[in-house]
Amino acid sequence: MYGRDPWGGPLEIAADSATDDDRSRNLQDYDRAALSRPLDETQQSWLLGPGEQKKKKYVDLGCIIVSRKIFVWTVGTILAAGLLAGFITLIVKTVPRHRHRPPPPDNYTLALNKGLMFFNAQRSGRLPKHNNVSWRGNSCLNDGKSDSSTLFKDLTGGYYDAGDAIKFNFPQSFAMTMLSWSVIEYSAKYEAAGELNHVKDIIKWGTDYFLKTFNHTADTIDRVVAQVGKGDTTGGPDPNDHYCWMRPEDIDYERPVTECHSCSDLAAEMAAALASASIVFKDNKAYSQKLVHGAKTLFKFSRDQRGRYSVGNEASIFYNSTGYWDEFIWGATWLYYATGNSSYLQLATTPGLAKHAGAFWGGPFYGVLNWDNKLAGTQVLLSRLRLFLSPGYPYEEILRTFHNQTSIFMCSFLPYYTSFNRTRGGLIQLNHGAPQPLQYVVNAAFLATVFSDYMKAADTPGWYCGPHFYSADVLREFAETQMNYILGKNPRKMSYVVGFGNHYPKHVHHRGASIPKNKVKADTAGNAGLVAALVALSGDSDVGIDKNTIFSAVPPMFPTPPPPPAPWKP
């Protein structure tokens, strides 16, 4: 049968009895035989059956082509890593966690709370609920009211003096100044010990009381309260707060108020207390400004009405002041830091004041800080100013002198020198064997530690004692040996801080502690210098002072340079 080929030839259509499978197989054989040259891989793939195809050496990922081996190895590695990560996560989540506890607090931190609680035990007035001294209660709520001769009718509050029920403003204000100084320098350490709010509460209890003892809203005053209570030591018939051994809560007799009209030392010390506290409470702007105003008023009074507060009264028996020139420098320095007013710095660096304060003649108590003589504290404070701000002329002469003198009395604390004797146990005798040596020791320990931290903060490795150079760490070591002695490393193996260690005095130095309410005994003791030294040494030694807070009110020492001129344009 023939059909027509549309392309110009006959088309034969023949019937064939062979099946389609036979014809297909014959055509494949024919095609293979007809090939006269080798085919490439692509061409061969046209001819190879499904069972005969070769594995590809590469994998086409669309954007890139990679080796099949690399591809398989990479995918396998990722899967294996995923399985391993999942296994580790499972272990971490199922195995009990062992959290690392912070290291236990050091001895200085442990003793810090005991030292602060002393002030809780000494509070006068209506006590807050959080006072945490169970044998103390409200006391002497009629202070001021019971004395018709005084203008100040509300004199509740403040602190009793050690074992007596008298409130002496002179040592009390020094204690508040020292506490404020320690907070300004070491607030981070107080915070780490959980005691920052506690110490600030203690300071405010004192400054709130001081504001009641003079007309703090006035710019000019003519009197200030020096003392509440009577301390007659003759044993007369009238009850008083020294020889009547009774709990303050049980006092029902009238307590006299002692005012002074010429008391430069007391007023300047109170000014220092309020000025330093104003820096502590600088975030409470209204209260801080109230403290600053009161400090200015008190300092003006101290300069206008010259005289020693303890002349002609019983304060000379308990806290006699030997002069007021050191308080002038001390108060002026704190007022400069609190206000930034350069007139206070000019006064503090006046050579005549330094001379009258004994800065140039030495003596057996040179470099010994205490409630009567603040020269050493002032020298350290003004050395701080020179180290960090370096104000230069016209202050540099006295600042350099004070800095050098600070270096000298720091040398006297070291065991290589013989300015002061030491006991067999190693306690330095700063008061040359007189009673109550520890209050001088703790003040020296604080000064040594804070001056060491000043040098470190100023990148100063140490200082010279004559031809010998000593590292700043030597001062810290001195402070540690003295505080360790007080905390129990002494021949008696006894801690002198009530409540600290295994062997310590059982009663705080307060008459209420030996006449306990409900037979509960106190477990606290201390003073401001002790607290200051403990917090300075506590915690990590790498955590030093707060370098800038004390300068928060101090303006730049030099005029700000003008901005650079604008770029020149043609």
From TrEMBL:
<keyword id="KW-0624">Polysaccharide degradation</keyword>
<feature type="active site">
    <location>
        <position position="509"/>
    </location>
</feature>
<dbReference type="InterPro" id="IPR012341">
    <property type="entry name" value="6hp_glycosidase-like_sf"/>
</dbReference>
<keyword id="KW-0119">Carbohydrate metabolism</keyword>
<dbReference type="Pfam" id="PF00759">
    <property type="entry name" value="Glyco_hydro_9"/>
</dbReference>
<protein>
    <recommendedName>
        <fullName>Endoglucanase</fullName>
        <ecNumber>3.2.1.4</ecNumber>
    </recommendedName>
</protein>
<keyword id="KW-0378">Hydrolase</keyword>
<keyword id="KW-1133">Transmembrane helix</keyword>
<dbReference type="InterPro" id="IPR008928">
    <property type="entry name" value="6-hairpin_glycosidase_sf"/>
</dbReference>
<feature type="domain" description="Glycoside hydrolase family 9">
    <location>
        <begin position="108"/>
        <end position="524"/>
    </location>
</feature>
<keyword id="KW-0812">Transmembrane</keyword>
<keyword id="KW-0472">Membrane</keyword>
<dbReference type="InterPro" id="IPR018221">
    <property type="entry name" value="Glyco_hydro_9_His_AS"/>
</dbReference>
<dbReference type="InterPro" id="IPR001701">
    <property type="entry name" value="Glyco_hydro_9"/>
</dbReference>
<feature type="transmembrane region" description="Helical">
    <location>
        <begin position="70"/>
        <end position="92"/>
    </location>
</feature>
<keyword id="KW-0136">Cellulose degradation</keyword>
<keyword id="KW-0326">Glycosidase</keyword>
<feature type="region of interest" description="Disordered">
    <location>
        <begin position="1"/>
        <end position="26"/>
    </location>
</feature>
<comment type="similarity">
    <text>Belongs to the glycosyl hydrolase 9 (cellulase E) family.</text>
</comment>
